[in-house]
């Protein structure tokens, strides 16, 4: 009799195949932390911005702009590890994970879209760019991304780790432009962001993705009403928890504290930092 009663493996999504080829051990050098942000001012700013511009501004857009500023102000955190040394990146990139339906299997899957140099863009420009990128991913109109996904879907699982390692080595260690082979340029940017709040989760600590060489991943929790201290009394405000996973080889507590200070300032006082509302 077997130790466990098991069913045969089911057909897997592309993301699940990549995941199986990515993580081999639970002993990676990750550190974790969280930051609770007061969101009332940000929510009021979003409502006013929507009314004035007609753009569907969301917390995701604010985070894109704010994280771009965070990295620009903390260049040591905008870094990449290659050949055992930490290199600063020129320019910032924020990768957003996107839930989508696989066009072949019809199953829920994960993909993503990257916005570059968000700190140099207006919120209107960020809204338009992310809307276009998210739509292209969800409707399979991103031809480069779909080409990569189709290729990965055909790779035998035992070969997936070697393929991901080889691609990461060529793209980041050798720093080769592989667009000719269908690998997007700077596909994952400087930081990955995933909105676990959309799943109803208030917090989650998400694993780093080794082949992306991204040393920082942020998970945005659901916005909820929370008792907070205001002017010496208890009040009810909307809050959101941001959970961070960091590669300790590249980032440490000093980096985290500096980045948290900037992020809190921008989100909790949006009118002083983001675009003026017409």
Characterization of the model:
- The protein has about 280 residues and is an alpha+beta fold.
- It has helices spanning about 15-20, 40-55, 60-75, 125-140, 145-155, 160-175, 255-270, 270-275, and strands at about 30-40, 80, 85-90, 95-100, 110-115, 190-195, 215-220, 225-230, 235-245.
- The protein is built from 8 helices and 9 strands.
- The strands form 2 sheets. Strands 1, 4, 5, 6, 7, 8 and 9 form a 7-stranded mixed sheet that branches. Strands 2-3 form a two-stranded antiparallel ribbon.
- The longest helix is centred in the middle third of the chain and has 16 residues, at about 125-140.
- The radius of gyration is 20 Å and the shape is globular.
Would you tell me the overall average pLDDT?
A: 84
Number of contiguous helices: 8
Q: Report low-confidence residues grouped into runs of 5 or more.
A: none
Order of helices and strands: HEHHEEEEHHHEEEEHH
- CA-based shape: globular
Largest sheet: number of strands, sense, barrel closure: 7 strands, mixed
Strand percentage: 15-25%
* Percent helix: 25-40%
As a whole number of angstroms, the C-alpha radius of gyration is 20 Å
Strand-pairing-aware structural class: alpha+beta
User: What is the first-to-last residue Cα distance?
Assistant: 72 Å
């Amino acid at each position: 009799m077997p130790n466990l009663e098991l069913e045969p493996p089911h057909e897997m999504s592309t993301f699940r195949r990549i995941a199986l080829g990515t993580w081999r051990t639970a002993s990676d050098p990750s550190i974790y932390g969280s930051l609770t942000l007061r969101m009332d001012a940000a929510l009021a700013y979003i409502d006013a911005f929507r009314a004035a511009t007609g753009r569907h501004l969301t917390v995701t857009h604010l985070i894109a702009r704010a994280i771009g500023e965070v990295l620009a102000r903390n260049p040591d955190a905008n870094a990449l590890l290659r050949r055992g040394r930490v290199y600063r990146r020129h320019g910032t990139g924020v990768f957003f994970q996107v839930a989508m339906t696989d066009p072949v299997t019809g199953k829920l899957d994960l993909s993503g879209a990257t916005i570059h140099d968000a700190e140099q863009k207006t919120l209107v420009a960020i809204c338009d760019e992310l809307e276009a990128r998210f739509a292209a991913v969800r409707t399979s109109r991103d031809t480069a991304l779909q080409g990569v996904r189709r290729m990965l879907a055909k790779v035998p699982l035992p070969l997936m780790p070697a393929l991901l390692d080889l691609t990461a080595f060529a793209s980041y260690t050798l720093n080769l432009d592989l667009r000719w082979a269908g690998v997007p340029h700077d596909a994952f940017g400087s930081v990955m962001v995933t909105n676990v709040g959309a799943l109803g989760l208030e917090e989650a600590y998400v694993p780093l993705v080794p082949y992306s060489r991204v040393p920082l991943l942020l998970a945005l929790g659901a916005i909820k009403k929370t008792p907070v201290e205001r002017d010496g009394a208890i009040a009810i405000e909307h809050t959101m928890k941001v959970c961070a996973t960091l590669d300790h080889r590249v980032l440490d507590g000093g980096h985290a504290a500096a980045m948290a200070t900037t992020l809190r300032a921008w989100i909790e006082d949006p009118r002083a930092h983001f675009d003026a509302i017409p």
